[in-house]
Amino acid sequence: MTSPATTRDPFLIAVEQFDKAVKYLDISPWTAEVMRHPHRELTVYFPVEMEDGRLEVFTGYRVHHSTILGPTKGGIRYHPAVNLNEVRALAMWMTWKCAVAGLPYGGAKGGVIVDPKQLSLRELERLTRRYATEISVLMSPLGDIPAPDVNTNPQVMAWIMDTYSMHRGYSVLGVVTGKPIEVGGSLGRFDATGRGVMFTARESLQKLGMKPSQTTAVVQGFGNVGSVSALLLHELGCKIIGVSDVSGGFYNPDGLNPNELLKHWRIHSVLAGYPKAEKITNAELLELKCDLLVPAAMENQLTADNAGRVNARLIVEGANGPTTPEADEVFRQRDILVVPDVLANAGGVIVSYFEWVQGLQSFFWDEQEINRRLERLMVTNFERVWAVAQAKQVDMRTAAYILAIERVARAAELRGLYP
Ligand code: NAD
Prior knowledge:
Layout: H1 10-22, H2 29-35, E1 40-49, E2 55-64, E3 72-79, H3 84-101, E4 106-113, H4 121-134, E5 144-148, H5 154-168, H6 189-207, E6 216-220, H7 224-236, E7 239-245, E8 248-251, H8 258-268, E9 278-280, H9 282-286, E10 292-295, E11 314-316, H10 325-333, E12 337-339, H11 341-344, H12 347-361, H13 367-392, H14 396-415
Parallel strand pairs: 3-4, 3-5, 6-7, 6-10, 10-11, 11-12
Antiparallel strand pairs: 1-2, 2-4, 7-8, 8-9
């Protein structure tokens, strides 16, 4: 893992990335200044009754970065390292992600400082229901629609939907996405982020003149995004030679079978103990010689410290914010193509948008329809960003930001300044 010395404040990184792109745009300095700030932020401290009868006070956040293009959208993270600047960065990245994807949403994010693995199921449910109640002053189907992120899942989304619905007196499907299918979730949503990563990797490989069947891939993180990315890249024909989770890295130069890894994970809840691989550290995993590297865990994984030793031709960001600006610069000099988070992991929010539309209309689509629409959007957006990168001779992250900022700025200027 990266040392704390190289772990940078994600919000400062988000603003630095914004400033790098805004130089290419002809937008008013005032519009840019507004976009550098979150729109609104909520911090909540709330008690939860623990199994032994004690009350524990938890801290949670919900940040809206922009409401220019529509209601805000963004996941909820449960993690001991959650902090306000991380949530701000994640909210800002959601604004650009939604704008690149052409969705009628602004960016938001939420989080609670907690290690959910230390909680019983009932404690997790009570924490979720209370947090949902606390943020319901900001959350609503037409105002702010949360979704899963690190350590939250469809069950957590079901509790949020139920809590909000209990307060209203009727079922409100559109208040949250990433729900189980049985309570208004969308077919294809669980796999959507990883599927989008696979489409993006496929298109990028094609641009580089590489064939999936001759591609070796390494995936960091084996949660929702990492495991589905590994499975679908394997189906595409890539050889997965390394994967990792919090318990460390697993390497097999002859190829790992993600289906078997998933079976092991379902039994043990971690990859630790997987027998058909050599055990390595997460730091070693990121430096394995491979064609494609998919960071799909947390921020700040590829930094000034290790970027010079990364041994991949292509990096497709499944996680949000895995690469620091310093590492981006090293990759540019080393001719390693980086496909940024705001483009590569947008599959989740795209199918969340489909789920929201289906929920609002109470009219549900089949999975083929969803995957077909997802593929079309991912490929079109990839091509648009690629074209901007070529035209302006910038990296893919700056190109994606240019597209996104331009869309939000144009809408902001058309809406005008209130009052
Ligand atoms: P998750 O909780 O399902 O999985 C996270 C995985 O990362 C787990 O396997 C965990 O063990 C591993 N991990 C955590 N810390 C690690 C570390 N230090 N080193 C190696 N592995 C580590 O979370 P997720 O939903 O898959 O999210 C992963 C990333 O993708 C996050 O950056 C998230 O913001 C981003 N993302 C998620 C979605 C989504 O739809 N879930 C959409 C877009 C982006």
